[in-house]
Design goal:
The protein is α/β, with parallel strands linked by helices. Helix content is 43%, strand content 18%. Helix 5 packs parallel to helix 6. The longest helix is centred in the middle third of the chain and has 19 residues. It is globular, with a radius of gyration of 21 Å. The protein starts with 5 loop residues before the first strand and ends with a helix. It binds flavin mononucleotide. The site of flavin mononucleotide (FMN) has 22 residues, from strand 10 and helix 10. InterPro entries: Alkanesulphonate_mOase_FMN-dep, Luciferase-like_dom, Luciferase-like_sf, SsuD_RutA_monooxygenase. It catalyses: an alkanesulfonate + FMNH2 + O2 = an aldehyde + FMN + sulfite + H2O + 2 H(+). Its EC number is 1.14.14.5.
Length: 376
Amino acid sequence: MTAPLSMFWFIPTQGDGTYIGSDIGHRPADFPYLEQIAIAVDRLGFEGVLLPTGKGCEESWIVATALAAATERLKFLVALRPGVTSPAFAARQAAALDRISRGRLLLNVVVGGDAAELAGDGVFLDHDARYEQAAEFLTVWRRMLSGEKVDFEGEHLKAFGAELAFPPVQTPHPPLWFGGSSDAAIELAADQTEVYLSWGEPVDQVAEKIERVRAAAARRGRRLKFGLRIHLIVRETAAEAWSAANRLISKVSDDAIAATQAMAAKSDSVGQARMTALHGGRRDNLEIAPNLWAGLGLVRKGAGTALVGDPETVAQRLREYQAVGVDTIIASGYPHLEEAFKVAELLFPHLGVGERGRQRHATIGGEFGVRAAATS
Ligand SMILES: Cc1cc2nc3c(=O)[nH]c(=O)nc-3n(C[C@H](O)[C@H](O)[C@H](O)COP(=O)(O)O)c2cc1C
């Protein structure tokens, strides 16, 4: 029996909806809705949730802290941009959230790839300099979380006598996950992080990146784990799943596609360029590998692909990623509340995960059901 995949879901802090790339059926990212999603996925047996960061997102640390109080087991993979705060401030935030959540914090280190947006955050470094700065940031952050008093003088950052009064629950520190596909990103991931994440490229492209990260880590005597960030559109039949995929982008205008592609073209992110290359901004030929659909990438930056199909087929495709080294899937689907139930109910039984959320209540039959009848 193949090992179970670890399944994460996504908290849509940018907003959610029935039709991507359109205002029709749009759901704002208001907190009660995000809380509903978190409570649902906690029950359904997802191991954790990813919270993105950026100018268009409700603030990830604040949202994660509030959701931690509303959930029991769910882990919070909170995105962190190293250039935006000092390492000492980020270290105090991480230690506090790790304590408040009773050891459920994971960090997703992302340097960002949009120069105009980063300028708004006060970050003016070019691509590779951002990674140099991130390396210095993580050096100070990790040493502080591990209990050291830190004196550090780097090219970008300085800290003297930096230390934590209150330690995190997890030792030596909450795990560092990481997303970035450039050479600079892979060197930093290999050097200082624990889990390397890729967006949902075709299996051979993900395998090639995993090999590069493994080799870079091996040169340092380290080993990483690997995760895949991808959307899922799972229905009882393949025909229903493809119809749901096409419906999702059915309100998208050519102008909306052009605007997203123009924004993506301005990014200096290698990972974004790899995603854009999969569809080239065209509506035809969106199934770029068996069951791998690039339709979301037309109007969504970042993770732009979905596995589409019946439960057996999607499970088999996920197993193909697992065979090249992936052990965690960070999934999502629009709208995130309903699709979390679909993934858990249709797909989890084929992956051997989420057993707890599927506990059956014995025989329910008759108009009020056996249990109801027995008590009424
Ligand atoms: C799984 C995953 C999640 C990401 N989440 C974010 C995010 O929340 N905010 C953000 O600015 N960038 C995010 N990124 C993008 C990284 O910051 C990105 O890869 C960066 O633009 C540098 O790209 P490069 O090393 O591929 O050139 C994410 C990347 C991956 C793979």
